[in-house]
Amino acid sequence: MGDAVTRALERAWDWLSVTGLAIALWVIGAILVARLIGSVLEWFEHRVTRQRHDEDAIVLAEDAKHRRAVLQVIRWVAISLIAFIAGLRVLALLGVPVSGLIGPGAVIGAALGFGAQRVVQDVLAGFFVVTEKQYGYGDRVRLVLSGGAIAEGLVEDITLRATRLRSADGELITVPNGQVLEAVNRSRDWARAVVDITVGDDADLAAVNDQLTKSGEAFFADKRYAPLLLDAPVPLGVTEMGTDTYTVRVVARTQPGRQFDVSSALRGYLMADLRRADLGWQHDQPPAGREVE
């Protein structure tokens, strides 16, 4: 009895000192390599985006946003590849014939593929989001999802499986990429601020348009707002007629993501000029302009 126990302990020690140690080294090595790759990619990501934030860190340069998304994909693929290689080596050290797993693996893969169609759909959709540069980190987007739901906010993270948005209320929204039917990017290249001004039906529309044009040029020349604009705001004329009012629309091209700031400031600027010119501005207007991409 004692000899059997001794032999069992010796065999266990031999296995641990040879096979067990090799397995532990492979597992520890895989973890260390994965962490090293993650650290290197994180350092490179900070290096790429460090000097590309504006004052409020909302909008990144287009190339930096794309690089950040690509780095996220590289990290995911690299860690998955390391885990796969380490898993194969552990199976080989345990004496499991890898070639014999081809048949069962195909069956298990088919079952998993059938049961994880949504995950595969998310990953493929995420791949195209990144490669086609539909949106990136720091973009302000509006996503139309399956079932008609809408998610809107600032992109905080993109992976192959999901996109994370920060809403205006501070909520973190996680959206599976495969559920996105339509993506509206409000931070690509340029955006547009739209302000609707209501005047009375007795107002001289030609004088109103002339005053709005002059006010737009003055607004564009203002040092506080010039960095946010690509050109001077211009009136588009009457867009709506009420029973005793006209609605005149003014539009301006802005830097990506700054249309909301410009719209608010431009509305106050125009209203003040119309008051001074006594051109029939209506005091019962809604308090804020309408902003679109």
TrEMBL record:
One Gene Ontology term, aspect cellular component: plasma membrane
Membrane topology designation: Multi-pass membrane protein
Compartments reported by the entry: Cell membrane
A GO molecular-function descriptor: mechanosensitive monoatomic ion channel activity
Listed transmembrane segments: 15-37, 73-92
Keyword Cell membrane: yes
Limits of the Mechanosensitive ion channel MscS domain: 119-185
Name of the molecule in the record: Mechanosensitive ion channel protein MscS
Organism annotation: Gordonia crocea
